[in-house]
Amino acid sequence: QVQLVESGGGLVQAGGSLRLSCTASGRTFAGHLMGWFRQAPGKERETVAQITWNAGSTFYADSVKGRFTISRHNARNTVYLQMNNLKPEDTAVYYCNAEQSPGAPPVFPWGQGTQVTVSS
Questions:
Q1: Closest Cα partner for 81 from 111, 47, 43, 109?
Q2: Of 31, 32, 47, 48, which residue is least crowded by CB atoms under 10 Å?
Q3: Which residues fall within 8 angstroms of residue 106, CB to CB, at 6 or more apart?
Q4: Angstrom distance (rounded) from CA 62 to CA 30
Q5: Distance between CA atoms of residues 43 and 57, nearest Å
């Protein structure tokens, strides 16, 4: 059974930075499109960023463009999300997962996520 583990969240002031990491036990990310997602209280989960298996292409939600950077290290089976200039509206639980294609159902069971809280 694949288990996704997200880490790196925390409490930060507006304008601050955090770096999230995602690893998986029991399965490799190699070959998969990987994404970071977030869910704020009372809202649906949304896609934040995606990266192709060879890191050749990335996608960002308009709300995070220019502030967030997704990257991956396949040998370490890890996906990262560098978040700069954080805003209070970035407060959410952040998750990672693999997709067969953009918008397709997630490949793996969702992990616990990591809480990001941005204070104003």
A1: 47
A2: 31
A3: 97, 98, 99
A4: 27
A5: 28
The pair of structure tokens assigned to 18 is 């955090």
- Strands 114-119, 10-13: pairing is parallel
For the beta carbon of residue 15, count every other beta carbon within 10 angstroms: 11
Structure tokens belonging to residue 33: 């499109």
101 vs 106: CA distance, rounded Å: 9
32 Cβ partners below 8 Å, 6+ apart? 53, 98, 99, 100, 107
Question: Which residue in the block uniquely carries the two structure tokens 């700069």?
Answer: 84
At 26-85, the pLDDT tens digits run 778 878 999 999 999 999 999 999 999 888 899 999 999 999 999 999 889 999 999 999
Rounded CA-CA distance 3/6 in Å is 10
CB burial class (10 A; 0-12, 13-18, 19+) of residue 105? exposed
Enumerate the β-bridge partners of residue 11. Answer: 117
